[in-house]
Write a structure and sequence with these properties.
Structural class: alpha+beta
Order of helices and strands: HHEEHEHHEHEEHHH
Strand content: 5-15%
Strand order of the largest sheet: 3-4-6-5
Shape: globular
Number of strands: 6
Largest sheet: 4 strands, antiparallel
């Protein structure tokens, strides 16, 4: 009769051990699923129309007009971008640095107007050479980071300004402080093999938002979405997505949201 309790104890022991193994395996599978299978939920909130600039940012609830005292014209940014800029602007002003936004959000049609104006300017070049010339500093419509409301141009649109006495002081302040507020220079020099647009000391991107937008762009946008303007049929030939949309600085590529 004493054997029965012993057998019961053994059964309970192995049953618990089996359940423990099952629980461990389930936890491992769940952990693996969470890590590798779940898409970043922030991505599902970004509409393709915004990625391509095909929307009205002036009426969009996530966008706000910049105070005219801080801009050279009527400019809009995403609310979060603007709030971060205000913090940076106040810190810069404390250090006697004045930051003025000269360009912010641009939609598809606004980018198209810039593109077509330059397309006509370089009418002495073959189409592929025209495109390469324009892409030195200007994006194809539907490929610009300015569509997203996360990027802004500061103070001046000439690199030479930022090597002058006043401009150099501003640029050095941005290099040393902008990252603290989430802003990063997107188009640095090409010494380390960066592709795409030329150096732009004025272009700064709010990466806590923009990094997610770039991820979603690479996930959902293809060359059939890049159309409706002169030369758009050659966008794939020049590899505008890998070479230009993703032709950003190393810091931008490796940025991770905290």
């Amino acid at each position: 009769m004493k054997v029965i309790p012993f057998v019961i104890i053994l059964c309970i022991f192995f049953a618990c051990k089996d359940n423990s193994i099952r629980f461990k395996k389930t936890a491992e599978v769940k952990q693996s699923f969470n890590k590798d299978s779940i898409i970043n939920p922030a991505l599902s909130k970004i509409k393709k129309t915004i990625l391509l600039g095909k929307f009205d940012y002036k009426t969009h609830p996530d966008f706000v007009q910049v105070d005219l005292k801080l801009s050279s014209k009527k400019i809009y940014l995403q609310n979060e971008t603007y709030e971060a800029f205000l913090k940076m602007q106040r810190a810069a002003l404390y250090d006697t640095i004045q930051l003025i936004i000269v360009s912010g959000t641009r939609n598809f049609e606004e980018q198209k107007a810039i593109w077509n104006r330059k397309w006509n300017r370089y009418n002495n070049l073959k189409p592929i050479d025209r495109i390469k010339k324009i892409l030195e500093y200007s994006s194809m419509p539907a490929t610009s980071r300015h569509h997203w409301g996360t990027d802004l141009d500061l103070n001046n649109l000439n690199n030479s300004y930022f090597t002058s006495e006043k401009g150099k002081k501003t640029y050095n302040w941005l290099i040393n402080n902008a990252n603290k507020y989430g802003f990063y220079q997107v188009y640095t020099d090409k010494i380390n093999g960066r592709t795409g647009y030329n150096l732009e000391r004025w272009h700064w991107s709010y990466l806590p938002l923009a990094s997610t937008y770039l991820e979603q762009y690479n996930t959902t946008v293809n060359y059939s979405d890049i159309d409706g303007f002169k030369g758009s049929d050659l966008s794939e030939d020049i590899k505008v997505i890998p070479a230009f949309v993703n032709g950003v600085s190393k810091k931008v590529k490796t940025f991770k949201n905290r």
